[in-house]
Structures are given as C-alpha cells and as structure tokens.
Amino acid sequence: MATRMSHATEVKRVLEGRDGRKLAQLMDLQDEAMRHAMANGSKGSTMAELRLIDENLQETFALLYETAQLLQARNTKLAYETLVNALGPFQRAFREDEDAWLVKPMHRMVKNLRSVAEACDAVPNGMQEKTNNMADAGAQMMKCFAVSIQAQHNRSKKLAALFIVNELFKVYFKLNTLHLCKNLVRAVMAPTFAKLEEFPMAQRVTYMYYVGRLSVFEEKYKDAEEQLEFALAHCDKGAVKNKRRILQYLVPVKLGRGHVPSMDLLQKYQLYEYTDLVGSFKCGSMQAFNQTLLQHQRKFIASGTYLLLEKMKLVVYRTLFKKVHQVHTKMVLEGAEGRGKSTQISMEMLKASLDWQRVSMDLEEIECLVSNLIFQGYIKGYLSHQKRTLVVSKQDPFPHLFEVAKSSY
Questions:
Q1: What residue numbers bound the domain in which 206 lies?
Q2: Which SS3 state, helix, strand or coil, does residue 318 take?
Q3: Does the predicted TM-score (pTM) go above 0.90?
Q4: Does 131 score more than 70 pLDDT?
Q5: Do residues 322 and 285 touch, judged by C-beta distance below 8 A?
C-alpha cells in the first residue's frame, strides 16, 4: 500500500528520469495510489522528500497533495480552489522547460481540473453553497491552452494543445455554451497551430466527434457527416461505447442526407431509439414516426438531434405521397380511375392517406404541405389550386433523397 513518503519518493525518481507518462499517472487525483498515499504518512516527511526537486513542480505537488486530502474530506469547493492554485507553478514549469516531457502531465492537470470542478458543482445545495466551477474550469483551461500554443522553440510542446481543446469541448457542451466552441475551431484551423495529422489519432477522433456535433447544431449537415464519419472510421475497434456515441449523431445526419442505416447496425450498437424511426422513415408511416419521436423526445432534445429529426417529417411525408402516387398510377393503368392521369393526384387522395395515418389535416393544410415539399425539392411538379390537384413530373417525380440533400443540406 502506498504512503505519502513512498509516493513522494516515486515522484522524485520519475522527475529525475523525466518520465512524463509516469508522472502524469502519479498526478491523477482519482488514482487509488494517490488516495492511499494521502491516507497514510505525515505531511512533513513528504515535503522533505519533495524539497529536492524543481521548485515549481515541488509547489505543484504540494498543492496536488493538499487537493487530494480535501477531496477525501469531501471539501470539494476548497479542493477546486487549491487545484487552481497548483496550475500556476505547473504552467511555469511547462513554459520554462526546453523539452516536451511535461505534455502528458499537462493533460493530466487539465483532466483533474475538469473532474474536480464537476464534482464540486454536483454537491447538493444542502451540503455547501451551489457553485459553477465548470465555467471557471473552462477559463483556467484556456490559460493552459495559451501556454501550450505559445511554446516557441519546441514544436512538440505545442502538441499538448489538441487534448486541451477536446477537454474544453466537454466543458462547453456540458454548460451548453456552444458559441465558445467556435473560437476553439478557429484556433485549431489557424496556420500557427500544428497540423491535425501530427496529433495522436485518438485525439483527432475526439476532436472530429465534437466538431461534428457542433456542425449538427449549426445545421451544417454535410460537414457533420464528413466529420462524424472520420471519427467512426478511425475510432478504436474495441471502443463500442465511443462508436455508439458517434452513431447517435451520425445516424440522424445520414438519414437526412438519404442514407438509411441497416437494422443490424442499430441493433449492434443498441441504438433502439432509431429502429422504429428508421422503419417509419422507409415505409412512410407518419403515425409511427410521430409516436417514436414523442417516445424518445427527451433523449433527442438532450443530444441536440431533435430539430434535425423534426425536419425529417417532410421526408416521411414525401415517402408516403410517393406510395400514394404508385398506387394511383397502378389504378390508372388498370382503368380503375376512369380517364384520370397518373401524373395528377387529388388532394382528397392525399388526405385519405393522412387520415389513414391518423394525421389530421384539412385540404388547405395539405396544399401548404405539398407546396413546401415541392419548394424543398422532395417532389418535382406543381400544385393546381383550382383543381386541388398535385401534378407531378413524368420523369423522376420523387427524386432520390441523396440528390435532394446535396442541394438543401
């Protein structure tokens, strides 16, 4: 079992070897070794052992140990404040060291900051006053980001930046301050920022996942599809949960662009909220679509995909009316419609299909819906208000959704 003295001795050894990966592990406030160390041994012996190392890192670890103790005592408010104080000396150590071995420890400090801020904000009001440390954590992380990108003489130190950007994304999405994400994207796209290809693939996948979600929010669905597809294609094969998170956004985006996922895919990643939705999407069942949307409304709103799925109602209407056209054409060819034309579909016939789906609309509302479908490119044709008839094109009256998406999404 680790003690404060043994932990400090290990820190000293790792510092002498300049092992950044191991040092980052020793700085993990959620690590069992750190917790055991804080519960065993005296503070004085620990400080005596640490006195021999770099002054800035000595101060950093002294404050980290204090933070760990405060977390054990469930004083999360003071723990967060102490951890913020530890950032200053660590940033100085990072800035002053000529090598890049402190990149991993920088990542750990940022992760510590987010986790402690989250724990602090989660404390019930009855135990201590309500705080909003996540917002402050975002500001503190920006200071770490600035230190990393300002590394003039060592390009490898700049590779600390993308990980920090991803942590900031997590903060901003949790706080629903997505407008702040745009500044991060601009920074990453700046010519002074290292090329994305230089960063580890895991960090690039995370970045593309959040940028893809941001594109969904901004209704840039073509960009979202490309970004989320990159994240899915390069995600670790065994990371099933991460793939599921990506697909929660990629599936509705691809639906909107005319690509219907297989049921096997939805079952494999337990995306059960989309199975009925996809079924109604394919067969044009407005009733089933509305029921599924209502059933999973909270989940879709929380994920930010509800408005995108709402827009797909037009696609379901388009599929339903396409089936009406197919039935109408068959009836004309068989002579059941008398002298009717296959390209002319009455509003009454469309209303009958909607009534069958338990969608209540009068003829004026249906005309408005059809006009919108024509305007959006889902139907080729025109509306004869005088005859209350939809006149569709003889050639490709219901274009493939992918073709429509190219111009509208």
A1: 200-311
A2: helix
A3: no
A4: no
A5: no
The sign of the torsion formed by the CA atoms of 303, 306, 308, 309 equals positive
Q: At what angle do helices 347-356 and 313-333 cross, to 10 degrees?
A: 120
pLDDT > 70: percent of the chain: 90
Residue 384: enclosing H or E segment and its boundaries?
strand 381-384
311, 335, 362 - which closes a domain: 311
Q: What is the DSSP string of 209-277?
A: HHHHHHHHHTT-HHHHHHHHHHHHHHS-TT-HHHHHHHHHHHHHHHHHTT-PPPHHHHHHTT-HHHHHH
Q: Is residue 69 in a domain? A: yes
Asked if 259 and 313 touch (Cβ cutoff 8 Å), the reply is no
358 within domain boundaries: yes
Token pair listed for 353: 């299909």
The DSSP letter of residue 311 is H
Tell me what pLDDT residue 46 has. Answer: 58
pLDDT recorded at residue 303: 82
CA dist 221 and 243 (Å) reads 19
Regarding whether 278 and 225 lie in a shared domain, the answer is yes
For the cut 70, the answer to whether the pLDDT of residue 52 exceeds it is no
Residue 294 has pLDDT above 70, yes or no: yes
pLDDT at 321: 93
Three-state SS at 363? helix
Residue range 301-321, pLDDT digits in tens: 888 888 889 888 999 999 999
Q: How many CA within 13 A on the CB side of residue 232?
A: 19
What distance in Å separates the CA atoms of residue 252 and residue 316, rounded to the nearest whole number? 13
Evaluate whether residue 188 is within a structural domain.
Answer: no
Q: State yes or no: pLDDT of 44 exceeds 60.
A: no
